[in-house]
Write a structure and sequence with these properties.
With 455 residues, this protein is α/β, with parallel strands linked by helices. It has three domains: 214 residues, Rossmann fold (3-Layer(aba) Sandwich); 82 residues, Ubiquitin-like (UB roll) (Roll); 120 residues, de novo design (two linked rop proteins) (Up-down Bundle), CATH 1.20.1440. 40% of the residues lie in helices and 14% in strands. α7 links the parallel β2 and β3. α14 runs antiparallel to α15. 52% of the residues are buried. It binds flavin mononucleotide and iron/sulfur cluster. The site of flavin mononucleotide has 24 residues, from β4. Iron/sulfur cluster (SF4) binds next to α14 and α16.
Length: 455
């Protein structure tokens, strides 16, 4: 990621921009897949899935109309790296999408981002126009789709639904099985013909959905080579990542560091630590992973090291809470966010996260009983049942881990004696202002579970 905004195509081309796609064209799709796999690039959208494997699966899948989707929806609270990339250098995202399209022989590219990201939308549109006019991205059509603010718009199948003109309601089948504009049935055996009137063969249109940061890395891997990319980072997660740091730290921001950098370095050195002489109590990596306690701050920020302590790197966005914060309030705030954002297609997810939020609110108000902890645990055990997407698992992982790691805070509420801070906001970042502070979406407090707002 460049350290400042690249403002023109000429400036981009001067810095080796355009070389990735031209190398990709010269060497051919197989060589692109080999190079991306050799670089051991792992997806930066949250799960860390190997990008070379994902692209190869789609290249090898049956079907003529394949697509590439660049995921710039960035809805994960505590994360601002994709918007930083799209603001600073949209060219590398567009070029990366063109490289992916070349690798899988796609017939169309969609770049999804949020309607409310006006700055990023303008920069992406200009970059697509400039790169296309300069003949640098080939003849695969590129469309920018502006979607809603909902968290599920970033979920890969929710994004496909939005591209097709629908609400971001996740699908059962994954994009490599049932891609964009697919006519093949989603749900196995049917006793009747799907889509009455459909003529011709059904097609599944396997689709690549890759995060915009992943695509930006692919651009530089193809320009400079896998060896250059892997010069930093750790063998299982080479390269760098722009990590977002917010919450109770002196210097919040987006810091690009090698994969495997200790979390403590990010918090203490780049974030300048917790203000006011207080100390960190917990760190959350987005809303998808188990809580990291102060004792675990030396963990390295890469996919495997984070998994080894039972959490996850997610999209590299870290939220710090200091030792004046009540863990019950954190669990309640995160649970409410996930409940509100859940779409309700899977009852255990929507109803379960609603119950968990209500019980946490009850406990926080000092009206809970010891038996409510058992109720929480039982509901957490079933919140993931028959789920279409990972959101229910996020509820289970975050709330379950806070309950597990901070039983004393729950105990204090059950006996009515907690004097810690309860004004916890899930940090859905909307901007980074000129004073160097993040701006948060306070409207989410008014958002109701049916995605309307109290005004
Ligand atoms: C609830 C939910 C929200 C998500 N939001 C985003 C998002 O905003 N941006 C993103 O790139 N991936 C998001 N993901 C992950 C995507 O589903 C998908 O795995 C990712 O875009 C794949 O890209 P990658 O292989 O480059 O990581 C989300 C997943 C879930 C379950
Ligand atoms: S798991 Fe939750 S958010 Fe995901 S599709 Fe089902 S109800 Fe919607």
């Amino acid at each position: 990621m460049p350290q400042r905004a690249i403002v023109s195509l000429d400036e981009y081309l001067d810095g080796a921009g355009g070389q990735g796609i031209s190398n990709a064209r010269r060497s051919g799709p197989d060589a692109v897949l080999d190079e991306i796999s050799r670089a051991r690039l792992r997806g930066r959208g949250g799960a860390g899935f190997p990008t070379g494997t994902k692209w190869r699966t789609i290249r090898d899948a049956a079907g003529t109309d394949k697509y590439v989707v660049a995921n710039g929806a960035e809805g994960e609270p505590g994360t601002f790296k994709d918007r930083t990339i799209m603001r600073f250098c949209p060219y590398e995202v567009v070029e990366g999408a063109a490289i992916a399209a070349h690798a899988v022989s796609a017939v169309g590219i969609f770049i999804v981002t949020k309607r409310s990201f006006t700055n990023e939308v303008a920069r992406l549109r200009a970059a697509v126009d400039e790169l296309t006019s300069a003949g640098l991205v080939g003849d695969v059509p590129i469309e920018i789709v502006e979607g809603p603010d909902e968290y599920l718009f970033g979920e890969e199948t929710g994004a496909l639904e939005v591209i097709e003109g629908n609400d971001p309601l996740p699908r059962v089948l994954r994009p490599y099985q049932h891609g964009l504009f697919a006519t093949a049935p989603q749900l196995g055996w049917e006793s009747h013909e799907q889509l009455p009137g459909h003529a011709g063969e059904h097609t599944a249109n396997p689709t690549v959905v890759s995060n915009v940061e992943t695509l930006a890395h692919a651009t530089w891997i193809m320009a400079l080579g896998a060896d250059e990319f892997s010069r930093v980072g750790v063998p299982s997660s080479p390269g760098t990542m722009p990590f977002t740091l917010c919450g109770d730290v002196d210097c919040p921001g987006v810091y690009e560091l090698p994969m495997g950098t200790p979390l403590r370095t990010l918090v203490d050195d780049f974030g300048a630590g917790v203000p006011g002489g207080r100390s960190p109590k917990m760190v959350l990596s987005g809303v998808a992973n188990p809580v990291i306690t102060a004792a675990e701050l030396d963990v390295r920020m890469d996919f495997d090291a984070m998994a080894a302590i039972g959490t996850g790197l997610g999209s590299g966005g870290f939220v710090v809470y200091d030792d004046t914060t009540c863990a019950v309030a954190v669990a309640r705030a995160f649970s409410r966010f996930l409940w509100v954002e859940s779409c309700g297609q899977c009852p255990p997810c929507k109803l379960g996260s609603g119950t968990i939020t209500e019980v946490l609110e009850l406990i926080e108000r000092g009206e809970g009983a010891a038996s409510d902890i058992g109720r929480l645990q039982r509901t957490l055990a079933t919140v993931t049942d028959a789920n279409r997407c990972y959101l229910g698992a996020e509820e289970q992982r975050v709330v379950g881990s806070v309950l597990d790691r901070f039983p004393e805070d729950f105990g204090a509420h059950l006996t009515g004696s907690c004097d810690l801070r309860h004004d916890v906001l899930v940090p859905k970042i909307v901007d980074f202002d000129e004073t160097g502070r993040f701006v948060f979406d306070h409207r989410q407090l008014q958002k109701r579970p049916d995605w309307t707002y109290d005004d």
